[in-house]
Amino acid sequence: MKVVVIGCTHAGIAAIRQILKEYPRSEISVYERQNSISYLSCATYLHIEGIIKKLADAKYAKPEEFTSQGVDLELNHDVISIDHQKHSLVVQNLITKDIETTTYDKLIMATGSLTAIPAISGVENPKVLLCKTFEQANDLFVNTADKHRIAIIGGGYVGVELAEGYARSGHEVWLFHNKPQLLEKYVEPIIAKKIETTLIAKGIHTIMNTRANAFLDNTDGGLTITTSKGDEYQVDKAVVSSGIIPQTDLLQGQVKMLNNGAIIVDPYMHTSDPDILAAGDDAVVNFNPTNALEYFPLASHAVRQGMLAGINVFERKVRSIGTQATTGLKVFDQIIATTGLTLHAAQDTPFNVKSVTYEGPYRPEFMPNAFRVTIVLIYDKNSRKILGGQLMSRHDVAQSANIISSLIQNGGTIDQLAFLDMLFSPNFNNPFDYLNLVAQKAVDQEKGYLNS
């Protein structure tokens, strides 16, 4: 049986590894349009600020890992079209320009996503850069190293991380975001404001609720950015990080998709075509807090879905358990971690949504560096089930988001979290951990505990 995998980044690599393990006699062909594999795009800003010395160090797999095991891995090969009825695809060698037609028994789509290019006049200007692929990241680093004024378009995770990277490397940074708050899909306003304050304190100019209207060449060889508020800003280069979209045009009209083009998959990563699977940034996930199919393009999802696609390519063996879309980032000395629903997103659901905010030291104040923690907990007033949580602190709160994620996964309530068994030591926390304390505050808000 022949399996064709299109795309060899996170989902594709995980799928290939699992097929080799589960079905060692299968024939595997892989097509990747880039000339390399396995680049972790989150390393871009780390390279800019100097933490990662060589961009290539952010690659975690080499082609030889697969070719030595008999995988036909074709780099610089672009799949031009797919005919799902004939189980065939047309592929072009991007070096020789030769075109061939090949077939498959099973197909795994791991084509990932593309940077969403905003409709801004002049966005095609060579001084306006992208930052997703390895080649784009390398060009970004090379073309901005000797420039001073850098504009970042978009205040999501990538935009905030890039702003930090450039600020740490000595650049003057202008961060434009067309919404009133940063990271609006992930955090509540109280945490977003703390993030913005952190950026401003580090010298980053945050231009909020403002849309870039045009990029124009200026007389000093840089760019003029005009905005929706009628202002003009002079910079040397601009970087677009305004979101990503699923790269699924090859299967348009051939499998079921969401309106945004994300491929709909079942818990085994199978599409509406029984011989096509999809995984990673081109596919949906089941979002557990609402039990709905959503699009959350995260590397953590890609590796899990890719692994499941490899396991289930010939027979349905292992189901996905869904996701809470748990994420995290470090902004200078602050750790931000989120999971589940935000209050804003939860208000579009049938839940009777409530939230509670806790702020206090993560460990006894007699200990040195008892950094304060801010937690927002989202829950359903009727069932008392936890729906989401966000944390921010100089203390590493990342694993606390994973605890909340696990509780959401298993239907945990504020009452359970209030008394959840957690270790105590003045080195690590208070007798009641800050997660216990935020849940106890939620219970108080609901006028006490449920009778048991």
Major sheet: 5 strands, parallel
Average the pLDDT over all residues and give the rounded result: 96
User: What percentage of amino acids are in beta strands?
Assistant: 25-35%
How are the strands ordered across the major sheet? 3-2-1-7-18
Helix content: 10-25%
How many E strands? 25
Derived structural class: alpha/beta
Task: Label the overall shape.
Answer: globular
The span between the termini is 56 Å
Low-confidence stretches: none
**C-alpha-based Rg, rounded:** 24 Å
Describe the structure using short key phrases.
five-stranded parallel sheet; alpha/beta; single chain; 27% strand; 25 strands; 11 helices
Can you describe this structure?
24% of the residues lie in helices and 27% in strands. Helix 1 runs parallel beside helix 7. A hairpin with a 4-residue loop joins strand 19 and strand 20 (292-294). The chain contains 11 helices and 25 strands. The longest helix has 14 residues, at 299-312. 43% of the residues are buried. The protein is of the alpha/beta class and 452 residues long.
